[in-house]
Amino acid sequence: MSSRILDICSNQRFQLLATGLLSAAAAASLLLGYQALEREERLSELKSSIPSLTQDGEAQRLNKFGASAVAAADKEDGRNRALAKRARAGDYDDELILEQLARNRVFLGDGALSKLREAFVVVVGCGGVGSHCAAALARSGVSKIRLIDFDQVTLSSLNRHAVATLADVGIPKVQCLERRLIAIAPWVQFDLRQEMYEGSAAGRLLGPWTDDSGRQPDFVVDAIDNLETKVSLLKFCHDRNLPVISAMGAGCKSDPTRVVVGDISTTTDDGLSRATRRRLKLQGVTSGIPCVFSTERTGEGKAELLPLAEEEFQKGSVGDLGPMPNFRVRILPVLGTMPAIFGLTVANHIILTITGYPIDYAPAKGREKMYEGILGFTQGSEEKLARMSQPGIVGLKIPLTTTDVALLTDDFYRARSAISGVSTRIVLVRWRKPEGSTVVTIGHASTGDLQKTSALRLSDLVCMTKEEATRHEREILKVGKKLDELYDAETISRVEAKRAEIEQYERYR
């Protein structure tokens, strides 16, 4: 055996092959080493171009979370901080504040705006979602904001952060937010907590404001993207009746029309919300927590969060991408606009809730199967009605789409029966029996382009449960009973008022 190995090794072709492989490996190593060195030099040049984080120009040691303890200081910062100090001390004309908040004042009213100006909100997580939420709250008049986040601004933060600039790269996100927002609303008081939220510190982090007033938070914002801490925060707030709203995953989402506010029990089509909901159920929490989430579904060509390939684990340190030294993370596919929409939606909900403004959200979208079922029921109902005047009719078309169904059921009837208010197994059915035929014929049979369509309008339809609609079809549409034989005067009046509202909409459709 050993002699055969010696023969192979002495073979000239083998020696040439081995030399080639060794040369290729050496060249690859040199190339990869050069690329790594070049990248390190570019990163170093970029970092060195960012202004020093201290007045004396000395670099500051990073804390245990990999963040700088001191924000950059310049003349503008000094001027803003001096103004903020005076404003918080009361040396700022209240009429100027009211002028800045004039649009909110007109919209909400003086009493509601006063509630907002006295409010105390805690924002946990100051990244894309949290930063836009905090900025909107400060601009809208909230006077006490506690910011909690351990992370620092990175280059990749700039595509979605509300106020961070290149000069803010490397400083804590909580300091970045305060630094920029006091230049907008200097009277706002910020309580900065540069630390990671943990359940053991919940009582302190979500506790009263820093003065002796003992004021508890009017709202807590969950803008955390870590599952364990997210669930811990929501459970803490739920058990103590502390108002909280949770932002679910904005990653891999691209459709702003699918972003909705709903209870934790109704969240769909999002891995983070699904995992959060399951873990909360295990701890006895099944509902009662409002959430901002997207019902957008993944599809061909859309971004997806794929499992981290095994070879990625073999590449060594990727500290430049992590929020802490030696903290490996994946880069989430995030369209920069979506966290802003989530954050602004969260802030909007808080503003409406604190001020007592009427909230009448439409039920969550993304219920295509339900809409298709309702459309099918209406189609069948119209065919049965048409056959009463034209026996044997088949293939009747109706001028209704799933978008129309969604509009009627969600926006006008709030996904509830107009008869009983029940929200299960809802359908759309004609309210009044039409006089004469409901069929409109278009085209000519001789040319083969004949089309029969129902003369149906949106205002003809009323939302009912399937059982109510079946009885309505039998008694009103088929037998021909009058409406007051089946319904009381209050129900008839309520339905007619809703139909008039829909008819008004149809005029401008």
Can you characterise this structure?
It contains 17 helices and eleven strands. It has 509 residues and is of the alpha/beta class. The chain folds into two domains: 75-296 and 310-355, Rossmann fold (3-Layer(aba) Sandwich); 368-507, no CATH class. The strands form three sheets. A seven-stranded mixed sheet has the order 3-2-1-4-5-7-6, sandwiched between helices. Strands 8-11 form a two-stranded antiparallel sheet. The chain has a two-stranded antiparallel sheet with strand order 9-10. Strand 9 and strand 10 form a beta hairpin. The longest helix has 38 residues, at 12-49.
Blueprint of the fold:
Blueprint: H1 2-10, H2 12-49, H3 75-88, H4 94-100, H5 102-108, H6 110-117, E1 120-124, H7 128-140, E2 144-148, H8 173-181, E3 189-193, H9 202-205, E4 219-222, H10 227-239, E5 244-247, E6 259-263, H11 271-282, E7 290-294, H12 310-313, H13 337-355, H14 368-389, H15 402-412, E8 426-430, E9 439-442, E10 451-454, E11 461-465, H16 466-478, H17 489-507
Parallel strand pairs: 1-2, 1-4, 2-3, 4-5, 5-7
Antiparallel strand pairs: 6-7, 8-11, 9-10
Helix pairs in contact: 5-6, 7-13, 10-11, 14-15
